Amino acid sequence: MRVRAAALLIEDDKLAVMERHRAGRHYFTFPGGGVDAGETVEQAVVREVEEELGLRVAVERKVADVWFHGNRQEYFLVQRISGEFGTGTGEEYTRAAPDDPNFGTYLPVWLSILDALNQPLLPIEMVLLLVKSHPDDWPEKPVIIFEQER
Q: What's the mean per-residue pLDDT of the chain?
């Protein structure tokens, strides 16, 4: 089973997301990635945000476990400590074949929370939780979501 750590970084009612163009599709995802051997999920989300967005963050709290294709994705509210948005240097940007359509492109962008439901932001179940919960109505305990296949 693969575990993915993902971040919800919100500033001024905007959400940091990764814009993707891949295999003929255009969509947005929450910043994050796989948990490496020897690191906690919290350490992974901090590392992934730095790699993808160029920001150092602190984990505030876990908000959800999303299950999809038998894999668990853990979502965390995070807060910026330092860094300049858009300066990530992770393998997404340094891979040898960025023109490979199966690899696609990665672009960090800010997306208005008000507009999140009108964009192809995945997974939609996390978008619904975000819109419902932000700014002050997050569940006390992490929500468990089983993502519907489309």
A: 91
* Residue 148 burial (C-beta neighbours within 10 Å; 0-12, 13-18, 19+): exposed
Query: What CA–CA distance (Å, rounded) separates 108 from 145?
Result: 25
Q: Give the residue numbers spanning the domain of 123.
A: 3-146
Q: Give me the residue label for tokens 């807060």.
A: 79
DSSP string, 108-125: EEEEEGGGGGGS-EE-HH
Residue 23: the pLDDT is 85
Number of domains into which the chain is organized: 1
Q: Indicate whether 85 pLDDT > 90.
A: yes
Record the pTM: 0.92
Q: Per residue, what are the HEC states of 57-84?
A: EEEEEEEEEEEECCEEEEEEEEEEEEEC
Q: What pLDDT is recorded for position 81?
A: 98
CATH number assigned to the domain comprising residue 110: 3.90.79.10
